[in-house]
Amino acid sequence: MARVINTNSPQKRRNHLMRTIAEILRGLGQKHSIDDEARDMAATIVFCLRDIDDTINESIQAWEKRNYYKKADDFQEKWWWAAQYALRVEKLVREAKWEDLPAVMMKLFPYFAEIEINKPMRDEKDWLGGYDKLMAEPPRA
Predict the structure, then answer these.
(1) How is 28-80 classified by DSSP, letter by letter?
(2) Angle formed at CA 16 by CA 124 and CA 78, multiple of 5 degrees
(3) Quick one: pLDDT at residue 1?
(4) The whole model's pTM is what?
(5) Where are the domains of the chain?
(6) Does residue 120 or residue 53 have the better pLDDT?
(7) How far is CA 94 from the centre of its chain?
């Protein structure tokens, strides 16, 4: 029997999510007002940041199983911001404090500055309905 190889690694998923957020940030920066699409984009950022945090935890658990505690701690320290910003953006969206969105996006932007976007790879269907989905679930603390 052949060995099963998982090609959907945490790093691959994390890179995809980072690219998605980078494209959303770019799209939000081009908007002049908050419309339904901007609300969906902001909510999708929350989901992507949560998923990034999940991939971080997967990697940390794998390293801790191998007793790579220092590597796991360093990795967690490098990515602490994902969970923090997920909560911050979620609170902003739930409380409809849209006037605070540009400031939070500017603080989030440096984490995505290295991602070069020559051609957008994501389209509206990737975030369509994100706001309704976020508002339908219970708030996280």
Answers:
(1) HHT-SS--HHHHHHHHHHHHHHHHHHHHHHHHHHHHHHTT-HHHHHHHHHHTT
(2) 125
(3) 64
(4) 0.90
(5) 10-136
(6) 53
(7) 17
